[in-house]
Prior knowledge:
The protein is built from 1 helix and 11 strands. By secondary structure, it is mainly beta. The protein has a domain of 96 residues: Jelly Rolls, CATH 2.60.120. It starts with a strand and ends in a 17-residue tail after the last strand.
Amino acid sequence: MKSIYFDKPENSNWYVAYHQDLTISVDKKAEIENFVNWTKKQNQFAVQPPISILENIVTLRIHLDETNLENGALKVIENSHSKGIYRPESINWENEKDVTCNVNKGGVMLMKPLLLHSSGRTTNSKKRRVIHIELSNIDLPKEINWSEKQEI
């Protein structure tokens, strides 16, 4: 339903705060009950769908480079995907544990987009490239389609 190529070059550096992926990319905007927070960026529509759709999505991340804490590997809050919409500002860090997801070059990581995740800055001057593919077997309401829908 969606694919992204992440390229974090060794000389370009940024931090991504803890968040959940709460929106999906669709082909157009339509008034549909429980589809909220519409945006349009670079001619691409995004919307926050009902939680039942978000819970069905699986993300496949193919790592083209070794990814570890020193070059911005994902850090996740264990089991946070099972808590619905889970705002970072509401985290009790005494009860939660974050884990760094080290992945070897050529490795694959599966995750749920509702998993609370972040990534740090690169500190070892090595790039991090990832092919990020979001998959779902749910059909959207007839008024809209996934932006990159492919029948398999």
